[in-house]
């Protein structure tokens, strides 16, 4: 077989045919995360880890790896596990309030509250690991999570008060909302402590809530 058969070329032709290597175009470096994006990524990661394994599974290193950041970066945003989980809970309730106008879901406080509690019941019973993690964090929160705890409580109570009051909130809606939030926390704490079944927990929350709303109606003029 000849050189021509194999496609070989004289050196002079090779030098003309083979172009010089072209340097690759520089790749733009990835945009650094802003503090807000860092925080959101951390909260997303915490929810995924908690939903998969509950409170004990939420380790700061695990969350950091899931979020794609260094552990030190995580601690700059959230100094403790309870602070992290309570902050995630506050964000989720804030999103819930923004996504749905619960004050427009019924004509009476009881109807509106029934819609909201029905939705919340479905969520906590569907994600038991997440329910356990969030409830334990709320109960176990220490001084490192005090501000986050206050924020989460305020978000939850604001959602309940808005649901009760509708377009014309009354002076009793906020204190009643605070009481309803306490009822939820007490019963979910009993549930994760295995002192009540899921069905018992749901029934106790519903019965206590209805008694309180009935009492609110009796105290509200023109109710």
Automatic annotation (TrEMBL):
Keywords: DNA-binding. It holds the Pfam family TetR_C_20. Residues 59-78 bind DNA. Residues 1-36 are annotated as: Disordered. PROSITE patterns: HTH_TETR_2 (PS50977). Coiled coil: none annotated. InterPro entries: Homeodomain-like_sf, HTH-type_TetR-like_transc_reg, HTH_TetR, KstR_C. Gene3D superfamilies: Tetracycline Repressor, domain 2 (1.10.357.10). Residues 21-33 have a biased composition (Pro residues). One of its GO terms (molecular function) is transcription cis-regulatory region binding. Residues 1-17 have a biased composition (Polar residues). Residues 36-96 form the HTH tetR-type domain. PANTHER family: HTH-TYPE TRANSCRIPTIONAL REGULATOR RUTR (PTHR30055), HTH-TYPE TRANSCRIPTIONAL REPRESSOR KSTR (PTHR30055:SF242). This is HTH tetR-type domain-containing protein. It comes from Mycolicibacterium mageritense. The lineage of its organism: Bacteria, Bacillati, Actinomycetota, Actinomycetes, Mycobacteriales.
